[in-house]
Structure formats: C-alpha cells, structure tokens
Input
Amino acid sequence: MNMKHLRATLLGFLALIAPPMARAQTPDEFYKDRTVNVIIGYSVGGGYDLYARLLSRFMGDHMPGKPTVVPQNMTGAGSLKAALYLAAIAPKDGATFGTFGRSVVLEPLFSGAKFDPRKYSWLGSITADSSLCVSWADSPIKTWDDLMTKQARMGGQANGSDPDVYANILKTLFGSNLRLVTGYPGNNEMALALERGELDGFCGLSWSSLLSRHRDWIDGHKINILVKASAGGDDQIVAPQMLDKLTDPKKRAALSLILATQAMARPYAAPPGVDPARMALLRRAFMDTINSPEFRAEADKLGLDVAPVAAAEVEKRLADIYSQPADVVALAKQAVGQ
Output
C-alpha cells in the first residue's frame, strides 16, 4: 500500500472513531427546557422583590423554548452582595441575571467596590422612579423643617443602599441631625419597624413601592412624605424636591450625579461577557414581557408603575455618571457618607 492510500485509510479510520464535532447551540436551543435564575438583592416582600417576581412569572413565555424563570433572593449589604455575585461569580451563559439597588452602581466610585457596572450585560429597567423620605404620622418629624431641626431615627440597611445613601445626603449636604439606624435586611423590615414605633422614618422608599406595598399608608394618612428625590417628572407626589433645597452649584452637581440613578430605578443585568446572541434574546424578551398586556394588567392590579428603560439608555446614564469631574465625584462620595 502506497503512502497516499495509507493516509486515506487512516483518515477514514479516525473519522469512524472520533466523536462528531460539537455544534454550537443556537440561543433558541440553549433556552429550551432550561431554568433561568433571577437574583434579587433584597428580602422577600419589598419593591425590588415584587417587581422581580412579577417579571419571572411572565418572561419565560416570551423566550424560545419556554424556560422556567425562577426568582432567588440573595440579601446582603444593601444588595451589594447580589451585584458582586453577578459581576464576578454568576455563570456567564445567559441563564442568570438579576436586580439590585439603583444606588449600588455608584459603589465603585464611592467605596472602591470591585466591579464595573458599565461592564454588565444590561437588560434595562422596568421603570424610572422617585425616592422618598417618609415619617410615621405619630412621629414628631412631620415636615422638611422638622427633619432639618429635630433628631430623627431613620432606618438603613448598609453602605450603598438607598436608605443609607439618602439619609447620609441629608446629614452631609443639608446638615440634618438625624440618627441613622442601619442594618435592616430590606424595606419590608424597616416598614415593620416604622409601624412599631422603633423608627421615626426612613429614606430611599420608592414611590412605586409605596403605591404597591403600602397604599394603606397613603389612604389612611399614616405617613408624612418629607421630601422627594428624583430627576423630575413626579408632580403627583406632593412634597418638596430635594434638589430644589440646594443653591450651592457644587452641591447641586454632586446631588444630580446621585439622582441620575433614578432613571434606572428597577435595573436588571446579566454578568459581563454573556454571548451577544443570547443577550439580544434576553433584552428582547425583557422588553416584550414588560410591554405585554398580561404583565401590564397584573402590574396595574399590584399598583406597580411601569415605564420601561432600554438597556442602551441605562448604559448611557452610567457612561455619564462615570465621566463626571473628580471634584464632583469627591463631593458626591462625601455626601453619601463614604
């Protein structure tokens, strides 16, 4: 047998014993009958949890293969634990994404947290929102002026969480004498403490959470809304605007940097480096779910505000935040108590 025939024989033999070359799965094939995990950075019962569970109920129906979408709570450090998990530990295959506090995206700027929110694979946000400072009706803290002149016991969770961020802003930029009582797992636990009289109030309560979880507080006149913190568009909330209480240009710039996160009030992100085709499918399914009649109808029943923010807009906001001058960032860092 000459060398040509020998080579042909060997190649034929190898073709018989070698395993077939693996074919890359299409996104449709990947998600068929799969479990998709939604990580929630807060405890059960709060606003972030409610939005995530509603999304999980319907999103699988808008994905090829009808995967089972399972919400999983991962509490810790005001949702920073969940953000870090998604940034560095979670599988990057497109079967895991999650939600965490809007202010957590500022942590790398302020505390040196080891992640870059610009590198997440963003799905978008279910809505924009306003954060409120509220007090219980029986508390001596009933107005903005009271918050500035009297000592209030205000609840918190951890550095970087919305309640702590806004409480510290009141102390550093406005000179409030409030006392921050931190360490609560989530807003649900702080709400119970407020009702029991353990706290005078807390900040960082989303308007959407108030409508969906505590409508009785409004209807029963059980709380005072002391101030609202937003980028505008919330005329239905009768309360002074936090930004309007500042006249110093540098302080206004620092607060505006922080308030930029209100445009991504219920953010959802997958880990960095997810396959672009799978991310395109996830983004499309995310927006299709939020805009679907069944999701909107259920959101209306629960009193949830829905105003979708696309992934591209979230990325644009983050790029703007991370391009601010060093002196503005330094003052904003000081403002949140870091």
